[in-house]
Amino acid sequence: MTRKLHILLLLSMAAALPQLSGCVGAVAVGAGAGALMVSDRRPSETYLSDQGIEIRAANRIDERFGDKAHINVTSYNRAVLLTGEVPDAATKAEVEKITAAVPDVKAISNELEIAGISSLSSRSNDTYVTSKVKGRFLDANKFSVNAVKVVTENGVVYLLGIVSQREADAAVEVARTTGGVRKVVRLFEIVSEAQAKRLDDPANKPTQSGAPAAATPPPTPAKQ
C-alpha cells in the first residue's frame, strides 16, 4: 500500500474515533497510539503492517484451532514471533504454515511449546514480568525504551527491536536480572549506533516499507 493511502487510512481512523463510545477516552487512545508510532524506529507503514499481520494471523489461527491451543502472535518489522502452547508437533507446524501465508510476513520465529494450555494466573504473571522489565528499562536509562519490544511467555522474555549492539546487550542484561525471568531470547535487528540515533528522529526514518538498509535480518533466537 502506498504512503498516501496509509496517511488517508490514519486520517479516517482519527475521524472515526469520536463516534465510538466514550469519545474522550477513544481520542486519548488514538493520540497515544499515534505518539507511539512516531517514536517507534519502524517506518509508519511498517508499524501499521505489523498490526495488520498480528490481527490476520491471530484470526486465521483462531478459526482453525479455537480453544485447542493458546497462541500469541507478535510482529515486528514484518518478522513474526509465535509463542504459547499447542498440543502436538503437527499443530505447531500448521500454525507456522498459516502464519507464513499472511501477506507481508518475511520471517517467523516459532517458539510455540508442546504443552498444556497455560493458566490465567500464569498469563497474568507474564504480564507482570513484562511490566517489570519495561519499568527497569526506564530506570536504567541506557537506550530508547520504545526501541525494544518485550514479550513474556511462561517466564521467558523475548526482546525485539531495531537496536545497536550496545543497546541489545544492555536490554538483555536488564531483562536477565529481573525477578521472575527464567530466560531471555534475543530477536533483535542490529544497526550501527549512528543509525539508531538517526532512527530516533522521525524526520530521518525511512519512508519505504521494510527495515533500514543496514539492519541485519532477524537472527535465530539466542537464549540467555
Largest sheet at a glance? 4 strands, mixed
What percent of the residues sit in helical stretches (DSSP H or I)?
A: 40-55%
Q: Could you give the count of β-strands?
A: 8
Shape category: globular
Rg value = 18 Å
* Number of helical segments with 4 or more residues: 7
Biased composition (Pro residues): 215-224
Domain BON: 49-116, 125-192
InterPro entries: BON_dom (IPR007055), Lipoprotein_DolP (IPR051686), Transpt-assoc_nodulatn_dom_bac (IPR014004)
Keywords: Signal
Q: What does this molecule look like?
A:
- The protein is α/β, with parallel strands linked by helices.
- It has two domains: 71 residues, Histidine-containing Protein, Chain: A (2-Layer Sandwich), CATH 3.30.1340.30; 104 residues.
- The protein contains seven helices and eight strands.
- Strands 1, 2, 3 and 4 form a four-stranded mixed β-sheet that branches. A four-stranded mixed β-sheet has the order 5-6-7-8.
- The protein is globular.
- The chain starts with a helix and ends with a strand.
- The N terminus is likely disordered.
- Keywords: Signal.
- This is Osmotically-inducible protein OsmY.
- It holds the Pfam family BON.
